Amino acid sequence: MRKTTSIIYFCTTLLLVACGNVQPMDTGQNTDDFADITKISNEYLISQKPSNQAKEMLRKHEEITAVRAVNTEDSIVIAIEVEHHERFTLAETRKKYKKEMEDKFKDKKVEFSTDKKIVLELEKLEQDITNNTITKKELEKKVKQIIKLTKEQT
């Protein structure tokens, strides 16, 4: 009898503690911003205003977790990362957002990718632009290389 009472007391205590009003831990992330973006600017190179506009447009979509974009005078390269469960519909997602970007930037050739390698390459390029460690000619050459990478099929 005493053993049964102890078990009931223990289970009741465990239930009350587990169902208590516990505040969630702060992860330090702002939940208002859906996507990870970095606005880039450099006064000496090509204006990155179009790529920043593309980032702002794409960051509003909940399934996008990160957006990277760089532009030259005549083209813009955009890469996004999507939530893991959204990768099942990756082709439709890519097609939908590429069309949206082509409609927005009619004066530029839009290259759009969901490939992680392109995201990483654009991130490096964005850092080079921000740190002013790249020339205009190198920027255009690097963008052409990234466009070539987007066309590759693995």
CATH architecture of the domain at 49-151: 2-Layer Sandwich
* General shape: elongated
Radius of gyration: 23 Å
The major sheet is characterized as: 3 strands, mixed
Please give the share of residues in helix.
40-55%
Give the class from helix and strand content and strand pairing. Answer: alpha+beta
Give the strand tally.
3
Q: What is the terminal separation in angstroms? A: 69 Å
Residue runs with pLDDT of under 50 for 5 or more positions: 25-33
Numbering strands along the chain, what is their spatial order in the largest sheet?
1-2-3
Helix/strand order, N-terminal first = HHEEHEHH
Count up the helices. Answer: 5
* CATH fold-type name of the domain at 49-151: GMP Synthetase, Chain A, domain 3
- The overall pLDDT average reads 82
CATH structural class of the domain at 49-151: Alpha Beta
Topology:
Blueprint: H1 2-18, H2 49-58, E1 64-71, E2 75-82, H3 90-104, E3 109-113, H4 116-130, H5 136-151
Written account of the structure:
With 154 residues, this protein is α+β, with helices and mostly antiparallel strands. The protein contains 5 helices and 3 strands; from the N terminus they run ααββαβαα. The protein has a domain at 49-151: GMP Synthetase, Chain A, domain 3 (2-Layer Sandwich). The protein has helices at residues 2-18, 49-58, 90-104, 116-130, 136-151; strands at residues 64-71, 75-82, 109-113. A 3-stranded mixed β-sheet has the order 1-2-3, with helices on both faces. Helix 4 runs antiparallel to helix 5. 25% of the residues are buried. The model is unreliable at 25-33 (pLDDT under 50).
